[in-house]
Amino acid sequence: MNRESDRATTDTTALARRRFLRLASFGVLLPAGLSACAAGGSSSGEETSAAPAGEVTEDNPFGVPKDTDVDAVIFDGGYGTDYVSFASTAFAAAHGGEVKVTPSTQISQQMQPRFVGGNPPDLLDNSGANNIGLATIAAQLKELTPLVEAKNLEGTVIKDTLYPGMLDDGTYDGKLVQLNYVLTVYGLWYSKTLFAANGWTPPTTWDEALALGEQAKAKGKFLFCWGKEAATYYLTLAIDGAVKEGGDDVRTALGNLEADCWSLPAVQSVLTKMGTAVSSGYFRPGGAGTQFTAAQAQWSQAQEAILYPSGSWIENEMKDQTATDFQMTGTPSLAASASASLPATALHASAGEPFLVPAQAKNAAGGMETLRIMLSKEAATNFAKTKLSSTVVRDTVPADAFGSTALASQVAMLEAAGEDSFTHNFIDIYGMNTDMLVVWNSFLSGQLDVAGLTSGMQEITDKVREDDSVTKVTVS
Hints:
Elements: H1 12-19, E1 30-31, E2 70-75, H2 82-95, E3 99-104, H3 107-116, E4 123-125, H4 134-137, H5 145-149, E5 171-172, E6 175-176, E7 179-191, H6 192-198, H7 206-218, H8 233-246, H9 248-255, H10 265-279, H11 292-300, E8 308-311, H12 314-317, E9 328-331, E10 347-356, H13 364-374, H14 377-387, H15 405-417, E11 421-422, H16 426-429, H17 433-444, H18 450-465, E12 473-474
Parallel strand pairs: 2-3, 2-4, 10-11
Antiparallel strand pairs: 1-12, 4-10, 5-6, 7-8, 7-9, 7-10
């Protein structure tokens, strides 16, 4: 999840990004209890690294020691890892060391033992289905306020270069402990070319989607497909739709893990429509046994399915497996009905790809410096150009969106949404995705009905809520 550009712009991209989020009202992490649940090591959140310190200067604000390397573990997902490696050139030129990137798709499994053992990496991209719940390691992370108050490579204070609200989701117990690097737009993605050829219109409600499913079926196509590791993309789609249907009360009830939250009428209305899509045969069979990028290729390359729910990383993730002249385009997630609380243009958009610097890292200063380089205009523009998605650094996407229909549609969706944008991150905060995958694969396969799915999700949620060892967060 990454980008690039060095020219200042006042185009619609910048305008849309500036207007896009009031995230402060959408879920800053505020602990509701005092029982910090750390995975091991320091629980104070203060730096405990014994690494030698370098000289602190304007060009070396964190005191990176000369000729020291950075151990960076980066989630190898839709954006790959080369955007972090891109920072190594500038790091080496300034400090003589190297940013050594280790790709991973098993973040929790590989990193939990390192946190427990007191030898975490210097920089961690805590992303993907197997991420570590932030609540379990927040006390072991360095505060990143000094990072955003430092100047970037161009000499501008970093916090002044970011889109509004981009630091809110990384604030825990009043401290900024994670830097979400990528501006992510969530919705449904489709081939503009295919839709035009068939006279189809992108749906705005689940009723419209079901009607479209019947039309697709008549053409020998499915409405949706899924892969086993990404079954919870449909959970995100369901939560988004429920928030649009029922409004902010639904978002806060789910985020605060309230009893019976999955039985709220707005949630059930969306799940019921999804259940109808499953029982009507609108989902391509076999997803629970299909690797997720193979399933995505069924949509983007073979075009056996016509819609796919994802974040805006999808174009880059599938760039080598997308049909010619596909013209990938996004549309907002679906409410259950036309009488929803939020308009059809309301959008789930947030900062994603969370980067952390462990306090016990051997070269925490190097981890901070790597992030400083990544937040430079050059590195952020490189990300936008090569990944066709925007970072949280503004003014790095030109008016032509580098020729990307998907990126251009993100800009259009953000502008259309205006202030009707929202986000949620409770699934990731509490590390519930792995358990949720089980029930969602069963549901999409037709093995669980809506009642069974609801019961399964509520059980997972109740377990977290009732576990006193887990620090709870209040979503407001």
